[in-house]
Design goal:
Layout lengths: L15 H4 L2 H20 L6 H12 L5 H7 L4 H13 L3 E5 L7 E5 L1 H25 L3 H12 L2
Antiparallel strand pairs: 1-2
Length: 151
C-alpha cells in the first residue's frame, strides 16, 4: 500500500496592499515597539500605561486622577485600576487635594520614584535601539509623529 501524499502547502498570503499602507505599517510598528518595551520592563512587572502614569505624576506633583486620564487619553474608568495597581505595589498614592477635597492627587512614593528612575534608564536604551534601527534623528521623527497625532 502506498503512503498518503503529503498535503499541499498552503498558498502564501498576499499582504501587498496592507504592507503598502502607512496606517497598517504604523500599527505593526506600534506592536513591535510595545513588545520591546515589555521586554525592557519585564522584570519590573510594569505596563506601558503604568509607566506613563508614573512619569507624568512624577513631573506634575499636583496632578489629579482625572487630569491624568485626560492627558494620557485614557477613559476615566480605566485610569482607576491603573492607579489601584500602582498603589497596591506601594509605588503611588492618592492624596486629597487641598483646593477640592473631592479630587485626589497622584503622588509617587519613594519606591515609585526609585523604580521610575530605573525604568527611565531602560526606556532610554529602548529608544536608542529604535532610533538606531530607523536611522533618523529623534527630533525629526518626533515632529513627524506629532503631525500624525493631530489627525
Amino acid at each position: 500500500m502506498k503512503p498518503p501524499a503529503p498535503p499541499n502547502p498552503p498558498a502564501p498570503i498576499d499582504m501587498g496592499y496592507l504592507l503598502g499602507t502607512v496606517g497598517y505599517s504604523i500599527r505593526r510598528a506600534q506592536l513591535a515597539v510595545f513588545q520591546d518595551i515589555y521586554r525592557a520592563f519585564g522584570d519590573a512587572g510594569i505596563t506601558l500605561a503604568q509607566f506613563s502614569v508614573l512619569a507624568v505624576a512624577a513631573d506634575n506633583p499636583e496632578i489629579t486622577q482625572s487630569q491624568l486620564a485626560a492627558v494620557l487619553a485614557v477613559e476615566r474608568p480605566r485610569i482607576v485600576p491603573l492607579i489601584d495597581a500602582l498603589q497596591a505595589r506601594g509605588l503611588a498614592q492618592r492624596l486629597v487635594c487641598d483646593q477640592d477635597r473631592r479630587n485626589r492627587r497622584i503622588v509617587l512614593t519613594p519606591e515609585g520614584r526609585q523604580l521610575l528612575r530605573r525604568l527611565k534608564r531602560q526606556f532610554a536604551q529602548h529608544e536608542a535601539r529604535l532610533l538606531k534601527m530607523l536611522g533618523q534623528d529623534k527630533a525629526s521623527l518626533l515632529a513627524s509623529l506629532h503631525t500624525l497625532a493631530q489627525l
